[in-house]
Amino acid sequence: MKKLISIQEWLPFSKILKKGVVKLKDESYVKILKILPINYNLKSEIEKEAILNSYKIFLKTCNFNIQILIQSNKQDLDQIISKIINQIKNEKEEKIKEVSEKYINYIKEINDNRQSTAKRFFIIIKTNTKKEEEHIQQELGEKYLKIKENLERCGNKVQEIETKEETKEILFSFYNKRLSQI
């Protein structure tokens, strides 16, 4: 008879710690960081070049392994459309109403074609050090600060995960994209 394994046995985590740190079953640790990126396409050519140079420096100075994870989820724009409709109900300026209605039609077209996606960016750092959890969290914290400093030079914002609950939600979204609301 084939033995069934539970989800808990299958998942690689053994413990969720504070500040986005997760202990894996192989006794290594990972730290998850949220990245709030800039809109590169809206930058001038000079700004783009500066951003790329800063990013090169970031990659050269990270003398440890990182994993970059991008999550794309289809986004329903109906709430945005409703909000704009409510705002233009009280608008007296006809030109603003006209532009708003064109914008609504544009959003509806994107929504109907399912072209709208929400993207979330994460960096995952790992350590295989066989130290006490306190030292491991300190080491991962130092790596976080190095990543934060370098990516903020590129214009991005780097956020540390604050709570265990937030870490659980992010892990859930990694493993169960269809049911995730994030």
Name its key features.
182 residues; alpha+beta; six-stranded antiparallel β-sheet; extended
Describe this structure in words.
The protein has 182 residues and is an alpha+beta fold. 47% of the residues lie in helices and 22% in strands. The chain has 6 helices and 6 strands, in the order H-E-E-E-H-E-H-H-E-H-E-H. Strands 1, 2, 3, 4, 5 and 6 form a 6-stranded antiparallel β-sheet that branches. A hairpin with a 4-residue loop joins strand 1 (13-16) and strand 2. The longest helix has 21 residues, at 133-153. The chain starts with 6 loop residues before the first helix and ends in a 7-residue tail after the last helix. The model has no long low-confidence stretch (mean pLDDT 83).
Topology:
Elements: H1 7-10, E1 13-16, E2 21-24, E3 29-36, H2 45-61, E4 66-74, H3 78-89, H4 94-112, E5 117-127, H5 133-153, E6 157-160, H6 164-175
Antiparallel strand pairs: 1-2, 2-3, 3-5, 3-6, 4-5
Helix pairs in contact: 2-5, 3-4
Mean pLDDT across every amino acid position: 83
Task: Sum up the overall morphology in one term.
Answer: extended
Q: Strand-and-helix sequence, N→C?
A: HEEEHEHHEHEH
Low-confidence stretches: none
Oligomeric state of shown chains: single chain
Judged by helices, strands and strand pairing, the structural class is alpha+beta
Compute the gyration radius: what is it?
22 Å
Strand residue percentage: 15-25%
Distance between the termini: 39 Å
How many DSSP-defined strands? Answer: 6
How would you sum up the major sheet? Answer: 6 strands, antiparallel
Structure annotation, total helices = 6
